[in-house]
């Protein structure tokens, strides 16, 4: 069943919120059973938005446009490939629960137990939500894909120009949906802050893009106090390995060594689960649970 743009947005927004509220896997089931994620933020982008070509310049030619993402899958399924105008992107933010943030805020080097469980089981839930949305849309006759869930499409790599990157950067998609902007630490700061995980789905439903600010250095980092000349370097101070600096921003290699490699040993030994994580730069900072920058009058 086809819907008009506004009706579609209301309908899918309701379903995402319902699933996050009701699905039993959005719970720290091996800890206290509390919510992993709080109420999501949801945004939309038009499939023919020129920003997707800009992302190829910024990230690399390997970063997919929504049309490229659907083409291969449509061809494999023998479905006619929708044009760019017929495609829309649904993007969402899953804010990490207050209790988890509070615990991580007390950590000085390694992630808290709840943060580690959120990285493992929260990401499993994030994937489940993407798969659920694809199935939910398909039941209604839409053609939908979650690019990060398609093995043939999604790949993370270490690129010569931009360092660690992927073929579908969720943060850049959420930026395109005007759900947030990039902080000094690289983290995407939204109205619900920077301590979150995010995801997206591409569908053959025309959607309008939001009115974003013009892209320039300040607007790209609009929600970050450092770029608003407010003198904040809290994330720099929080990083235990000096991976964030005023001079170079985020050093992904230093971050990788700590947040992926070193933390995995700690998490296994102390929390008995196989995962890595850190996120110290996302907690105990002014942008943790909200955008610290006031709305323009
Ligand atoms: C590879 C990866 C990493 C790498 C590299 C991170 C990175 N900066 O790209 C490493 C291992 C270091 C890493 C670490 C972490 N990660 Co990680 N990671 C990813 C992954 C798989 C791909 C990211 C990607 O494709 N990046 C592309 C590159 C090019 O992005 P970039 O360098 O940051 O982009 C900069 C430039 O493009 C620049 N820019 C310059 N000009 C322009 C112009 C325009 C128009 C735009 C839009 C941008 C732009 O802006 C960006 C910021 O400076 C995503 C999942 C996904 N599929 O997206 C998760 C993801 C980014 N990670 C996430 C998280 C939570 C973490 C950790 C906290 C670990 C943890 N869970 O405990 C740390 C945080 C590090 C930090 N300071 O942000 C979240 C981010 C949430 C958030 N608030 O931003 C994601 C989105 C996972 C998810 N599904 O939610 N991660
Ligand atoms: S802690 Fe301060 S400098 Fe760092 S991203 Fe948040 S607002 Fe920006
Ligand atoms: S995730 Fe950890 S290691 Fe990486 S930049 Fe943030 S605080 Fe530093």
Structure description:
- With 297 residues, the protein is α+β, with helices and mostly antiparallel strands.
- It has one domain.
- The chain contains 9 helices and 10 strands.
- A hairpin with a 5-residue loop joins strand 6 and strand 7.
- The longest helix has 27 residues.
- The protein starts with a helix and ends in a 26-residue tail after the last helix.
- Bound molecules: cobalamin and iron/sulfur cluster (SF4) (2 copies).
- Cobalamin binds next to helix 2, helix 5, strand 5, helix 6 and strand 8.
Identify the bound ligands.
cobalamin, iron/sulfur cluster
Please report the number of helical segments: 9
Overall strand count: 10
- Gap from first CA to last CA: 40 Å
Derived from helix and strand composition plus strand pairing, the structural class reads alpha+beta
Look at the structure and give the mean pLDDT.
Answer: 96
- Beta percentage is 5-15%
Low-confidence stretches: none
Helix content: 25-40%
Largest sheet: 4 strands, antiparallel
Q: How many structural units, i.e. domains?
A: 1
Map the helices and strands.
Elements: H1 5-22, E1 41-46, H2 51-58, H3 66-77, E2 88-95, H4 98-105, H5 113-139, E3 144-145, E4 156-159, E5 163-166, H6 170-176, E6 180-182, E7 188-190, E8 196-203, H7 217-220, H8 234-238, E9 244-245, E10 249-250, H9 252-271
Antiparallel strand pairs: 1-2, 2-8, 3-8, 4-5, 6-7, 9-10
Helix pairs in contact: 4-5
This protein binds cobalamin and iron/sulfur cluster (2 copies).
């Amino acid at each position: 069943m086809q819907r008009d743009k506004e009706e579609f947005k209301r309908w899918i927004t309701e379903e995402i919120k319902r699933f996050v509220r009701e699905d039993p896997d959005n719970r720290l089931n091996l800890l206290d059973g509390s919510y992993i994620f709080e109420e999501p933020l949801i945004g939309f982008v038009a499939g023919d938005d020129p920003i997707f070509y800009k992302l190829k310049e910024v990230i690399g030619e390997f970063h997919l446009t929504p049309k490229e993402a659907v083409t291969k899958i449509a061809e494999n399924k023998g479905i006619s490939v929708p044009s760019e105008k017929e495609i829309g992107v649904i993007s969402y933010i899953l804010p990490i629960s207050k209790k988890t943030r509070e615990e991580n805020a007390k950590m000085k080097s390694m992630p808290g137990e709840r943060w580690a469980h959120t990285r493992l089981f929260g990401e499993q839930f994030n994937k489940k939500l993407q798969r659920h949305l694809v199935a939910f849309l398909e039941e209604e006759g839409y053609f939908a894909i979650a690019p990060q869930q398609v093995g043939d499409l999604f790949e993370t790599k270490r690129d010569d120009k931009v360092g660690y990157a992927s073929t579908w950067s969720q943060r850049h998609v959420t930026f395109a949906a005007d759900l947030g902007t990039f902080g000094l630490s690289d983290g995407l700061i939204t109205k619900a802050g920077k301590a979150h995980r995010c995801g997206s789905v591409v569908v053959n439903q025309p959607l309008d893009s939001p009115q974003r600010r013009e892209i320039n250095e300040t607007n790209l980092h609009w929600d970050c106090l450092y770029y608003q000349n407010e003198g904040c370097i809290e994330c720099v101070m929080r990083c235990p390995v000096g991976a964030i600096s005023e001079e170079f921003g985020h050093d992904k290699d230093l971050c990788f060594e700590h947040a992926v490699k070193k933390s995995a040993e700690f998490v296994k030994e102390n929390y008995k689960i196989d995962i890595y994580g850190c996120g110290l730069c996302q907690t105990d900072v002014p942008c943790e649970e909200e955008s610290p920058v006031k709305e323009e009058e």
